[in-house]
Amino acid sequence: MSKGLPKRSDDYSAWYNELVKRADLAENSPVRGSMVIKPYGYSIWEKMQAGLDKMFKDTGHTNAYFPLFIPKSYLSREADHVEGFAKECAVVTHYRLKKSEDGGGVVVDPEARLEEELIVRPTSETVIWNTYKNWIQSYRDLPLLINQWANVVRWEMRTRLFLRTAEFLWQEGHTAHATKAEAEAETIQMLEIYAEFAEKHMALPVIKGVKTESERFAGAVDTYCIEALMQDGKALQAGTSHFLGQNFAKAFDVKFANQEGGLDYVWGTSWGVSTRLIGGLIMAHSDDNGLVLPPKLAPIQVVIVPIMKGKDQLVQLADQANKIASKLRDKGISVKFDDRDTHKPGWKFAEYELKGVPVRIAIGPRDLENGTVEIARRDTFEKQTVQVDEAPEVIFELMDEIQSNIYNKALNFRESHTTEVSTYDEFQDVLENKGGFVLAHWDGSSETEERIKEETKATIRSIPLNAEEEAGSCVYSGKPSKKKVLFARAY
Amino acid sequence: MSKGLPKRSDDYSAWYNELVKRADLAENSPVRGSMVIKPYGYSIWEKMQAGLDKMFKDTGHTNAYFPLFIPKSYLSREADHVEGFAKECAVVTHYRLKKSEDGGGVVVDPEARLEEELIVRPTSETVIWNTYKNWIQSYRDLPLLINQWANVVRWEMRTRLFLRTAEFLWQEGHTAHATKAEAEAETIQMLEIYAEFAEKHMALPVIKGVKTESERFAGAVDTYCIEALMQDGKALQAGTSHFLGQNFAKAFDVKFANQEGGLDYVWGTSWGVSTRLIGGLIMAHSDDNGLVLPPKLAPIQVVIVPIMKGKDQLVQLADQANKIASKLRDKGISVKFDDRDTHKPGWKFAEYELKGVPVRIAIGPRDLENGTVEIARRDTFEKQTVQVDEAPEVIFELMDEIQSNIYNKALNFRESHTTEVSTYDEFQDVLENKGGFVLAHWDGSSETEERIKEETKATIRSIPLNAEEEAGSCVYSGKPSKKKVLFARAY
């Protein structure tokens, strides 16, 4: 199956595109920039949704649903927001088709033109804050902690499966608070939740930080983010959490009666992660043989492949396989027994390697005689032969071990690809020849940031939250700087 | 809280609208015909999704995601389909906005006009069958059993929260099969799943049947449906399952190599239920005090209200309440302990009645002394005082009892509002004075069906699957008929 999968070292980009297709994760649709998420890819998204949704609910959030369409005029209400989102969006102008004159198809009915055009939501701050205006009168109505799972559309020119598509799936949290401190605490709490999800579920180490002004969400006071490193040395923004201040409350006139009897504008946050996470998951862990999935997000955690000659042997093997499967399922492990006689074991081995199934069990006639099975790990390709009775416990422990190993591998990669530099020569050299994150002093000006971007294609991914205060001088301008910031070329 | 909720007997329609708003289920948005599904309403939808999704997966289906936008030309590929769906749909014509000349807002950029307009999906048969063409080559690729949870848009002129909205949430299953028999069996299987979900989860008795030609899904060979009866005597179509024959396979040229080596067109089905189910749930069970929710779909199954004077008592009451809550949660029951001191117990009682919480526990100082609690049922308003130790078991059993009682009440209502008639006078009289389902002989012609609709506003809801073969004469034309069909005025 993996025949012809390009090698990462030869062409990382082609490797990614081919892998997404061959592993049945997604494909391009005839609608430019929109993808079809195939069942195997979607089941990874379902696991992500389940993990995140639980974390959101455990911290007091509830889900709701707001309209897909936003009246055009809403976008203009918040000045920065419209700058950021009006440019590339899908616009609904009509609400009816009619038969064409020649009878061969349908055309837009010019008489069914909308008075005000509708925008397909690129994000929902405007329509949600317009609704919150009616929901919030008093401090008793706060905080409002709401999340939405939805599709959004941004008319991107260059698209790439999962990483950048015109339509994508995501969740967007939108909260309203009585005080600045509470809203800021919420912003950080959600950043922490994203980081925990990335590290514990996706086995993806991330750096928590705050964006510079030029990389901030349109309409936010502060944008916090988690940044991860891919195997080609490029960074991927994996989630953002925005402190909105009172910007949207002012734009949509959302005030509340405070406990002292006065009227205040409400404080807001918004935060989101998307199907882009699937792209990050693939690029961080997978290898030249195919996907490597952390057990917590693998749609199938264990596959059992019988090694047999002829159908007669299948009965006995199936009996053994089903017993093991049943014991694994009792431990909450998802198992597939692939007893198809249309494909040979070797083909199946390659297929499940490609699909990133964390553990493969093989059972042949000799195993039956000896009461053993062969267990193979996808992450290290290590094999071991164990007694049937021990297999469930061994595999149960392997789940944690594989999860940790994948995380540690990604962490080691990131650590060995994070370089502190003190000169611009070094800075350029690292970006050109090594890649990865570069920690360097920066003078804090947007002008310097822009110049560096133009000259090196590297952007400031964030000012890491754990950056130490230390006097230094900007790697570009030589001006004074108080801390190092995180640079990288990025997706 | 329920002050001013209109009575069903006075104005059923106003009662419904007010109830949806006051119980915090949904509200109209500024985008005509689009609703905001509020957290309490959305959590009912989440329970519906979880129940249905499990049933789909247990029968071998997987989820996937297809694009929101459909190229205009796709709609015309299936002749009946375009007739049914082209008329009222949202059309995307542009992909960019720009600042208006006067600088006061944004306008559609005339230069960003799409070459081919995109339709916001009203249903996804076309874009999915266009994709299936690439996924299906051989009988080995079949059956393909895929479902999608998504939003869809149909530009309805008269909208009503949950029952008929321009944008709504739904699931749409789309399956592909090698034989006609297999596709027909799938169509019926999904109808059975919908009926089981309605009856077991929603406590809503339904009649399974097949639609007449004029009520068929645009592009289907046969449309099966489940029909439920609301308390005002009107019917509600609660779910449909379509046998598509080879219509979409032919429209999108989807062929497969069969086992004999020949090429055949693929057989298809599609099936869906939507947020409309929430409207049906409300209208079937609720009363003049508010929602009545079956325990299986209630976001909160049990609420505990402390009856106290002053904060001192709360500590002891809270201790008792938390113990009970914990035991209930161990049994898988969702519990809310409402210890707010900003509202009085009477206010809370009315609030949770309005919200349809199936069981209310009240604990006062005397209960503490006696080691008792008061348990009240939302469906019957019955109260009983039980020993604290017995409460969890009593409530656990109540969950089933309430679920059954709500179902039986709805079933009794339907049975007493299903009338067999043999003359057109009787037919009209029942519709005018009693309402409900009317079983009557019909000659099988669309003309008769249309006349009856014009004269009485009643439509043929379905030809019930369990209708007995019996010779008779059409209630309208007197022509021969082989079985009675199900008429009603409907939502």
Of all protein chain pairs, which has the greatest interface, and how many residues does each chain bring to it?
A: A-B, 63 and 63 residues
This entry's quaternary arrangement is: homodimer
Q: What topology, given as strand order, has the largest sheet of chain A?
A: 3-9-10-16-13-12-11-24-27-23-22
**Looking at this structure, what is the CATH superfamily of the largest domain in chain A?**
Bira Bifunctional Protein, Domain 2
What general form of chain A does the structure show?
A: globular
Rounded to an integer in angstroms, the radius of gyration calculated over CA atoms of chain A is 26 Å
Count of all domains of chain A:
3
Hey, roughly how much beta strand do the residues of chain A contain? 25-35%
Low confidence ranges of chain A: none
Number of helices of chain A: 14
Give the class of chain A from helix and strand content and strand pairing: alpha+beta
**Helix fraction bin of chain A:** 25-40%
Chain-averaged pLDDT of chain A: 95
Spell out the key features of this protein.
homodimer; BirA Bifunctional Protein, domain 2; Rossmann fold; Translation Initiation Factor IF3; 3 domains; 11-stranded mixed β-sheet; 5-stranded mixed β-sheet; 14 helices; 35% helix; globular
In short:
Two copies of one chain form a homodimer. Chain A is α+β, with helices and mostly antiparallel strands.
Structural features, described:
The structure is a homodimer of 491-residue chains. The longest helix of chain A has 26 residues, at 391-416. The first copy, chain A, folds into 3 domains: 12-285, Bira Bifunctional Protein, Domain 2 (BirA Bifunctional Protein, domain 2, 2-Layer Sandwich); 300-404, 3-Layer(aba) Sandwich (Rossmann fold), CATH 3.40.50.800; 418-488, 2-Layer Sandwich (Translation Initiation Factor IF3). Helix content of chain A is 35%, strand content 27%. With 491 residues, chain A is an alpha+beta fold. In chain A, helix 2 (39-58) packs across helix 6 (180-201). In chain A, strand 20 (372-377) and strand 21 (383-387) form a beta hairpin. The model of chain A has no long low-confidence stretch (mean pLDDT 95). The interface between A and B is large, with 63 and 63 residues.
